[in-house]
Amino acid sequence: DLPPLLIGSHLDSQPSGGRFDGALGTLCAFEVLETLEDHGIETERTVEVVAFTNEEGCRFAPGCMGSMAFSQKSIPEAWQSVKATDGALFTDELAATLSDLQGAAMRPLGFPVFAYLEVHIEQGPSLEKQGLPIGIVTGIQGTRWLQATISGQTAHAGTTALSYRKDPMHAAISGLNVLYGEIMPGDDQSRLTVGRFSLEPGAINAIPATVRFSLDIRHPNSVQLDLIEARVRKILQEHARLHGCDLAMELLFDMAPARFPDHLTGILENAAIRAGFAHTSMVSGAFHDALFVNRIAPSAMIFTPCRDGLSHNEAEYVEPAHSIAGAQVLLHASTKLLSEVLPDMLTDGRI
């Protein structure tokens, strides 16, 4: 049997997420199957729809658990002890889910795949601002998550003069001010985000003893990502010492940049042209299931605009015409990969 063509995305969402992130790609994949069936098109190679689980990583971390396990051909041992935000154990919840799917045939993780195509909303404003209905994703940025812990000395807020302070908050703010002024202004492909910040002991009238914060750094080039990380470590270390504090850095997550195969992105570009849609090539700033599937099979993505670039938000919205555009490009690309020729009715707008 020939390895199948996989098309799809994910269905899980964020606590305040909208209706299109993930779900659009899954429904576009089903629409492709429906269209092939409606027109009696049979393919030598099987086309299968996939909806990967826990792409968002909201309840269980890390995200992209389904596609990651598929690409590794097994569930990582480290996940056995993972707990959800509500305290539930990953292994218990997985067992409960499988027990509710007794009618479904179990498939081995990482079975051979011919290729994988995924439609997804852009989750940014670029396509909408350019007035383009389609983005051809050439790759995905590398991402690293760091945790910085700056340790100083807690002391009385009112009686401790500046010269006697070992203030980790002051060290953190001054170091981050330098990084915010350098990293992204110096390279529009760079990303630097502090998403979590905590102080201990957390008393209103005490200099903190410890400040702990996360750093999310991203870049599509692995060499540049290394340079950003080195700069982050150097600047924070300098400012910790300047304020009489100590710095400890921990690498929490490291995902290398990915480039999708040129021949596959070329098929997507030709599919957009054939369907009559203006398009542009772009790198994804967020990671997706296609990143992990790309490690075991050629993969690529199609982006559609979302209103105001909003995602992970209940106001997330995709114009119907753009949803249709994404589905049509997926259909054209899928049939090209399957070496099938669709009826003329595809080109005259009846599909």
Give me the secondary-structure topology.
Layout: E1 5-10, H1 23-38, E2 47-52, H2 65-72, H3 90-99, E3 115-121, H4 126-130, E4 134-140, E5 142-151, E6 155-156, H5 168-186, E7 191-193, E8 197-200, E9 206-207, E10 210-219, H6 222-242, E11 246-255, E12 258-259, H7 262-275, E13 279-284, H8 289-293, E14 299-304, H9 320-337
Parallel strand pairs: 1-2, 1-3, 3-14, 4-13
Antiparallel strand pairs: 4-12, 4-14, 5-10, 5-11, 6-9, 7-10, 8-10
Helix pairs in contact: 1-9, 5-6, 7-9
Description of the molecule:
With 351 residues, the protein is an alpha/beta fold. The protein has two domains: 227 residues, Zn peptidases (Aminopeptidase, 3-Layer(aba) Sandwich); 114 residues, Alpha-Beta Plaits. It is built from nine helices and 14 strands. The strands form three sheets. Strands 1, 2, 3, 4, 12, 13 and 14 form a seven-stranded mixed β-sheet that branches. Strands 5, 7, 8, 10 and 11 form a five-stranded antiparallel β-sheet that branches. Helix 5 runs antiparallel to helix 6. The chain starts with a strand and ends in a 14-residue tail after the last helix.
Short descriptors:
351 residues; alpha/beta; Aminopeptidase; 5-stranded antiparallel beta sheet; 9 helices; disordered C terminus
Brief account:
This protein is α/β, with parallel strands linked by helices. Helix content is 33%, strand content 23%.
Percent of residues in helices comes to: 25-40%
Largest sheet: 7 strands, mixed
Strand content: 15-25%
What is the fold named in CATH at topology level of the largest domain? Aminopeptidase
Count of separate DSSP helical elements: 9
- According to CATH, the homologous superfamily of the largest domain is Zn peptidases
From the N-terminal CA to the C-terminal CA, the straight-line distance is 29 Å
Helix/strand order: EHEHHEHEEEHEEEEHEEHEHEH
CATH C-level class of the largest domain is: Alpha Beta
How many strand segments? Answer: 14
* Overall number of domains: 2
Question: What best-fitting shape do the alpha-carbon axes yield?
Answer: elongated
- Residue runs with pLDDT of under 50 for 5 or more positions: 340-351
Radius of gyration, CA atoms, in whole angstroms: 24 Å
Mean pLDDT: 93
CATH architecture verdict of the largest domain: 3-Layer(aba) Sandwich
Which class best fits the helix and strand makeup? alpha/beta
